[in-house]
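We emphasize that the prediction below concerns an isolated chain of 221 residues; any contacts that depend on oligomerization or on bound cofactors are therefore not represented. The input was used exactly as deposited, without trimming of termini.
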Amino acid sequence: MKRRSLLVLLASLALAVLCNAATDAEAEAAAYWAVVTGRADKIVAVLALDDKAKVLRVRDLVAGYYRDLRDVHETRDTALARARADGVSADEAALARVREEADLRLFRVHTTFVARLSVELEAGQVEAVKDGLTYGVVPNTWRVYREMYPELSDEQRRQILAWLVEAREYAMQGGSSHEKHAWFGKYKGRIANFLSAAGYDAKAAEKQWFERQRTGKTGTP
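Result of the prediction step, given as a token string:
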């Protein structure tokens, strides 16, 4: 009888632990959703949409994108940590497979998000959402390049802008601000090499740009 009572008690304790864990997980999920919903609200507000139903749909798409990215990144990071703990850190092939699988999932999440967003918004509005997700790096950096190198040819400008836009697509899949900025840093390096090969002196261009900033002569061609 005592043994049965002990088993019942242990079962009750185990059930209580599981219930508490489920409650904690639900609370954490709700808190995270509140955070990403707040971020999404700020991004969508820039669009100045007059359809309240559409505002909510787009807001939830953006918030859901943040959540889906986190799920992929957390799964990837957990798998990498487990692999290293198992002593296979030297097996780069195994680690590469984990990253490749995560990259494939990120691509699917990204493609689905942009497709659904495109159904709700015009092309320019989709661009605005992408900029909101990446801290406005593309328009800000593009403006600086044009100010620093006003003599760029149309072809050079198109190439630089194309690289910045390409960088944004990858940056959108980053799980942190560090990852997002790292993508832009990679492409800025490519642009620097491109300009150097074309005969531009980056240090001289930067010095002249700062001087124009100081004197207020910052017209962008």
